[in-house]
């Protein structure tokens, strides 16, 4: 099945992404990896009126993993594979990351997307 019709915005800055979300309201979704959202759209379990693609936003640390003051910061664009390869990640997260789904999902999907999707059967649970 094909997803319902939607508008698509490829944001190039955080401000542009926020403005597109505000303009579209509650029926607007952010898109990074798409590993959860796109299959749900194809089945029409999710029918957003607009997708705001944040993959082109280079600034704001969205694609970085870093430790600061004893805290781990993982950006919204960080893929599962990036987490598995990072020296900044330790403990249970480092142990789980290499086992998330399959290589396709690890290279496209994001931790933030998995958390936002909140599937009780998801790999991070």
Topology, please?
Elements: E1 7-10, H1 14-24, E2 28-31, H2 37-42, E3 50-53, E4 65-68, E5 71-74, H3 80-85, H4 91-96, H5 103-108, H6 111-117
Parallel strand pairs: 1-3, 2-3
Antiparallel strand pairs: 4-5
What is this structure, in a nutshell?
By secondary structure, this protein is of the alpha/beta class. The chain has helices at 14-24, 37-42, 80-85, 91-96, 103-108, 111-117; strands at residues 7-10, 28-31, 50-53, 65-68, 71-74.
Describe, in plain words, how this protein is organized in 3D.
This protein has 125 residues and is α/β, with parallel strands linked by helices. 34% of the residues lie in helices and 16% in strands. The chain has helices at 14-24, 37-42, 80-85, 91-96, 103-108, 111-117, and strands spanning 7-10, 28-31, 50-53, 65-68, 71-74. β2 (28-31), α2 (37-42) and β3 (50-53) form a beta-alpha-beta unit. It starts with 6 loop residues before the first strand and ends in an 8-residue tail after the last helix.
Mean pLDDT: 91
Quaternary organisation of the protein chains: single chain
- Taken in chain order, the helices and strands follow as EHEHEEEHHHH
Major beta-sheet overview = 3 strands, parallel
Label this structure with key terms.
Uridine Diphospho-n-acetylenolpyruvylglucosamine Reductase, domain 2; globular; three-stranded parallel sheet; alpha/beta; two-stranded antiparallel sheet; 16% strand; 34% helix; 125 residues; 2 domains
